Here is the input.
Amino acid sequence: MPKIKSTARSPHVDMTPMVDLFTLLLTFFLLTATFIPIEPAQITIPNSVSEKTTPEHNLITIFIAPNKNIFFNFDDGKDTAYHYRANLLKAMGIQYKTTFTPQELKKFTKLGTFGMPMKDVKRWLDTEHPKDAEKMQTGIPMDSIDNQLAWWVRMARTVNPYAEVAIKADGDVVFPVIKKVLDLVQNNGVNRFNFITTYQKEEVGLKDLPK
Here is the structure.
């Protein structure tokens, strides 16, 4: 009786479940990801060997652009129920006699770094085109006649006393400009602050060890 030969079959892997899983993971990451807002000025920060990390919340960040323009950012904190950014804008509005609508306050809480005179903030919030809004980012005044940066720092510390201050300056900015910002921060009662830099690991060889 002849033997019955089974038909040889090549192995087959069903990829459908894996594709479904990949789609679900991709959708999850897209929905939960937090996109970093575009900063109004490109700042190349210097290197350092410090491993200290800047806090993610309760942070006031002062940006110093290569052209010496000053920009400001203030996060809503870990618990957004306090509405720090909205309260900050309200306080600045009272100081400069400007009334902001609830829609403008809500929009301000969702924006990132900004820098313009107070007289242009309301128009900046009402601008619908991003390019037009970008043109208004001319920097916060820091002159002796109307030191608006000092008021931003003072009001931010008032609405959130736990906020730390970080300075992010371009590597080409001359020291007198940085010192002026440091003096302003210290004059507003902030004696501890951070410098944002790029971490550069330093390797020590045998020749670098003390003899």
Notes: The two ends are 92 Å apart (CA to CA). The first helix runs from residue 16 to 32. The chain has one domain: 47-199.
